[in-house]
Amino acid sequence: MTAPFVPNHAQRRNRVMPYAHVKRHLFEILMQREHGCCIWCRRRVIREAPTPGLPYPRNLATLDRVIPGAQGGTYEITNLVLACNGCNHDRGDAPALAYAARRGVVLPDEVMVALAARTEVAA
Ligand SMILES: [Zn+2]
Ligand 1 centre and the CA of 99: distance in Å? Predict the structure, then answer.
């Protein structure tokens, strides 16, 4: 008999970051899906290692979780969009649909389908 799974704090809050090689793979998929541009401002993003001691550049590519981590959002590809560091910070934990409407952005189909499915479960 196996012990029941008791999630620790990080697991409950979904704050576990994917391994570096998984992250690299997620970035590759998103860079292709979004044509190397931030979903929110449509400006080109860069995939360079930030310079130590300097703040992250505004156009640095980030994984932006559609449902934020604080609300249990995961790093599944359907819960991710490619965002520049500036837009990711600007959005914060704002709901994706409201933020998308404010920015005049249409989210990718697979993201919308997953979001609808999750909302149905929650409702
Ligand atoms: Zn942006």
Answer: 12
What pTM does this model have? 0.82
Give strand ranges (E) for 2-76. Answer: 61-65
Query: What whole-number distance in Å separates Cα of residue 26 and Cα of residue 46?
Result: 15
In degrees and rounded to multiples of 5, residue 62 shows phi and psi of: -130, 155
Tens digit of each residue's pLDDT (9 = 90 or more) over 94-109: 999 999 999 999 999 9
> Residues lining ligand 1 (ion), CB within 5 A?
38, 40-41, 84, 87
Q: What is the CATH number of domain 13-122?
A: 1.10.30
Q: How far is CA 72 from CA 79, 93, 98, 101, 118, in A?
A: 11, 11, 18, 22, 11
Domain residue spans of the chain? 13-122
